[in-house]
Design a protein that fits this description.
eight-stranded mixed beta sheet, 2-enoyl-CoA Hydratase, Chain A, domain 1, alpha/beta, 48% helix, 14 helices
């Protein structure tokens, strides 16, 4: 498989190119096979070294990788018998949100997620994963369906944010997001969210008020994109790498800050290197958390979710300051 390498992977790209050239020219020669094994081992070591030391901006690039598995990919790998549900019964269908009924680990669930698409045509159709109000209202309708029939909810988060266009604002984008936050906080079924790529602002949180929030190892979760933050702070989008560090948007930072509950390991080199292994790691985490949540009563689930989000964040006084 040919990979689309990121800039910081250039040394690895050159090494893997040499390996591929050798394979094509080898013709079964013993000496060539030995050299391929040696270089392959070197490539594995280099890949491990690179991806064990990524900074926040590099993780942002991995989270946005064009070949990274999306919600549709994971639905196919994690569930069986998926039946998609369409429309918000108010205005229209929004392809930026995909959701419906499925079977996970032998039990019925509802699964919902942002979908950026893969090809240029599909990305345009899905508005690059930026939902409109009708997308969030569709997600809410599906979640209320899940509550009515007692089905656990799995949400997959991958969006730069809600669409900020005029039409979206005219149709009540902020109200749609706020209503999702309100209703999700009181749902009486288990809810587990997984940030699989980008988790951007209220656009992500609108399907992320969960009992358990998980993140893939190289995913990001933030109130604003690094580019947006840089344009506000410095009026210079080129300072996005600096903003990424300040935002503390990595999965590791989110775990330390108590925002998420678990970091899910990715294949070395990113989830796009091995879709099936990435999905297996997510499946294992989902099974564990859904099993724990299934022991709670509906009242306990709602109370647990409320307490979780109330506990996020803390206020500390600067050194030397006196308490009021």
């Amino acid at each position: 498989m040919a990979y689309n390498f990121l800039e910081f992977e250039k040394p690895l790209a050159e090494l893997e190119s040499r390996i591929e050239d050798l394979r094509l020219a080898a013709g079964g020669q013993v000496d060539a096979e030995d050299e391929i094994k040696r270089l392959s081992k070197k490539a594995d070591e280099l890949r491990e070294k690179i991806f064990s030391g990524l900074n926040a901006w590099q993780k942002t690039q991995v989270a946005r990788h064009q070949d990274r598995p999306n919600t549709e990919d994971y639905i196919g790998l994690l569930t069986q018998g998926f039946t998609e549900m369409h429309g918000d019964r108010l205005f229209a269908e929004d392809p930026a949100i995909i959701g419906g009924m499925a079977w996970f680990d032998g039990s019925p669930v509802v699964i919902i997620g942002h979908n950026k698409g893969r090809t240029t045509k599909d990305r345009l159709k899905r508005n690059f994963g930026q939902p409109l109000p009708e997308g969030y209202r569709k997600a809410l309708r599906i979640m209320q369906f899940a509550e009515k029939f007692g089905r656990p909810i799995i949400t997959l988060i991958d969006t730069v944010g809600a669409y900020p266009g005029i039409g979206a604002e005219e149709r009540g984008q902020s109200e749609a997001i706020a209503r999702n936050l309100l209703v999700m906080s009181g749902l009486r079924v288990p809810v587990v969210s997984v940030v699989i790529g980008e988790g951007g602002s209220g656009g992500a949180l609108a399907i992320g008020v969960a009992n358990r929030v998980l993140m893939l190892e190289h995913a990001i979760y933030s109130v604003i994109s690094p580019e947006g933050c840089a344009s506000i702070l410095w009026k210079d989008g080129s300072k996005a790498p600096d903003a990424a560090e300040l935002l503390r948007l990595t999965a590791q930072d989110s775990l330390k800050l108590g925002i998420i509950d678990e970091v899910i390991k990715e294949p070395v080199g990113g989830a796009h290197r091995d879709y099936e292994l990435a999905a297996k790691n997510i499946e294992k985490a989902l099974k564990k958390h859904l099993s724990e949540l299934s022991a709670m009563s509906p009242d306990e689930l709602a109370a647990n979710r409320y307490a979780k989000f109330r506990a996020i964040g803390s206020l500390t006084s600067p050194p030397g300051a006196k308490n009021a």
